Amino acid sequence: MSVEHDFEPIRGLPNDLPPGETILWQGEPDWTLMARRVFRVDWVAVYFALLMAWRIVDSTANGQDLVTALLAAIWVAPIAIVGVGLLVGLAYLNSRTTVYTLTNRRLVMRFGAALTKAINIPYKIIESAAVNKRADGSGDVALQLVKPNKISIVLLWPHARPGFISQPQPSLRCLRDATRAAAVLAEALRQTHEQSHATAPRVDEKSQATRGGGVGAEPALA
């Protein structure tokens, strides 16, 4: 049980499981992947590197010697270190305080450091799921909810599929083994919908080989 959430009866869950419910899988975002793919640390570092290079070029073009130009560029370094450091810290904190739990009945997303939130998503309101897998096996698992079920993007972020604002898709972000989580989810969805004699939601997989890049209950805050 984590120190940050030692009040939890079960890690990642605000309450004990009701009779008949069992945990099938638990996971959390990888902080290094979150730093790169959510907080875009790579892009921020490149921006500061280009800014330093521009200061050198601009200074030399204005007649200053190379040493003076280098000193002018070095002044950017502390800002770059603080900026990148803050983003890395946010990624680490978000990862450390997040737990995704798949049970035989629902997905529970617990996240937040200062204000902890736990979102319950019953399987019967999941319309489909999409797996965005990278070449190294890491990736995201995004869920499309049956309308009119909807969770605010402000409440979900950063645990939401990028680019879906009007109809946010809750997502298990930056998993080291996205395939495993998707397989457990697919089987849980199949069993849930077999019991209700409904068609099981599809789970689509999209691989990215070149990048390291009102029916049923509503989602509820626990």
Largest sheet: 5 strands, antiparallel
Shape: elongated
Structural class: alpha+beta
Low-confidence regions: 209-218
End-to-end distance: 19 Å
Strand order of the largest sheet: 1-2-3-4-9
SSE run = EHHHHEEEEEHEHEE
How much of the residues is beta strand, in percent?
15-25%
Strand tally is 9
What is the overall pLDDT average? 85
The number of helices is: 6
**Radius of gyration over alpha carbons?**
22 Å
Share in helix: 25-40%
Give an account of the 3D structure.
The protein is an alpha+beta fold and 222 residues long. Helices cover 36% and strands 23% of the residues. The protein contains 6 helices and 9 strands; from the N terminus they run E-H-H-H-H-E-E-E-E-E-H-E-H-E-E. The chain has a 5-stranded antiparallel beta sheet. A 4-stranded mixed beta sheet has the order 7-6-5-8. Helix 2 packs antiparallel against helix 3 and helix 2 runs antiparallel to helix 4. The longest helix is centred in the N-terminal third of the chain and has 21 residues. About 5% of the residues have low confidence.
